[in-house]
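Much of the work behind modern protein science is quiet bookkeeping, done one molecule at a time. The protein below has been through that process, and both of its lines are reproduced in full.
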Amino acid sequence: MIFVTLANLVLVLIFSFYSYLTIFYVIYKIELLIWLVMTEIGYYSYKIRSYHIDSSSRLQVHQLLNFLQDAAHQHADGLGFGQSQLSKIDLFWVLSRLSIEISELPGQGDEIELSTWVKSIRGSVSERELSISTNGKLVVNASSLWFCISGETHKPAQVPEEYVTKMTVNNLFATKLGAIKVELPQQDAKSRTGKVVRAEFSDIDMVDHVNNATYARWILDEIPTNYHQNKGLKKLTINYLGEVFLDDNIRVVHKFWGSNNLLHEIISIKTNDIICLAITTWN
């Protein structure tokens, strides 16, 4: 009788222990869900396919930009202030600056989790942060600056208040310095001739200008092959200063700027205006 009573007591204790664990786990998940809703961090999963990689089986940088852009669009649309909503009143988000810090580029077959959040909103300008993890390791951080522009004038337009209220702000930087402004050096660095590129139909996005990821592809295709084969890209900062449209001809050049940095320019052949400035840092 005593043995049966003790056995029952042990079973009750074990059941109670696991019940408490279950309750604590449920409470933790509820608190986590509430925290995510309060901070409005979006999480999006992607798999690196064979058509995303380069000859070293690592994610191509312009494909990385496509993932960042896709997550930003999904997050904004999901919360009600994205392209799907703003286009109805002839407003659009355009990327102005992007700074990326890379510790490691994911490889073929890797599952990546991309998180993104709004850091600030002021008038027509919004800061957005992004980060990528794979196999439990943080591998990419990015900070970006976006402008809301009028579809009619292609000039900055203030985000209507009804959309601002949907943009819950999380005041955290993913990168050390945020989306950096690229300044041309006072003393011109040593420059190469570069290459001329024409904007093709496949380069154009839904707002009828060249997609931001294409600029990165043009920039990285123009530099010497040995940079890709013998070095690793650790930082990329791009400032988008103008638009490129279908059949526009542009010149892409780079300048050696210190031992580890390259300064890149994309210049309009027609106007000689600088359309894009970028800095890449290599190890």
